[in-house]
Amino acid sequence: MERGHQERLAPMAAEVMAEAGLAFAGLGKLAVTIGPGSFTGLRVGLAFAKGLHLATRAPLAGIGTLAALAASGEGACAGVIDARREVVYVQVFDDDAALMDAAALPVPEAILTLARLAPGRLRLIGNGATLLAHGLPHAIVEVRPTPDLAALGRLATAAAPEPDVRPLYLRAVDAKPIAAP
Description:
Layout: H1 5-20, E1 30-35, H2 39-56, E2 60-64, H3 65-70, E3 76-84, E4 87-94, E5 97-98, E6 103-106, H4 107-117, E7 123-125, H5 129-133, E8 140-142, H6 149-158
Parallel strand pairs: 1-2, 3-7, 7-8
Antiparallel strand pairs: 3-4, 4-5, 4-6
Helix pairs in contact: 1-2
């Protein structure tokens, strides 16, 4: 969803819970993706999850978006998100073990990093996967806008609750202050 997160998120959650025949009070654990991603999307998602956490007292855990994307595949996988301006957010995993921290890298540097960390068969997963494919010809490319829900559920089940879940920002905001006239 490109716009309207704040207006649609709560009604969508209510619809899903109603469809499943569950009450919010019965939630045993909450998990939210913490980024990287769009600044607005992260803030809206985290605010909603924290609100549910306060209202239900269900434990809350944060899941990295790149980890969730990479968990959608098997073996050596890189979660890759197009951060725009020839930069990608990237993190490499081998069977859920992180081989690097999440980073915002220029495309050429990301290609070199992935070639070094996963020189064999690598799966690139995410909306930025095609940006790296030309430099990693043996990679399997899976363009997907969101993580596989089963993979996300598996990570959420294993995640430890945190006292203060915070967003993972890998770069500064694009907005610049406007000088007063």
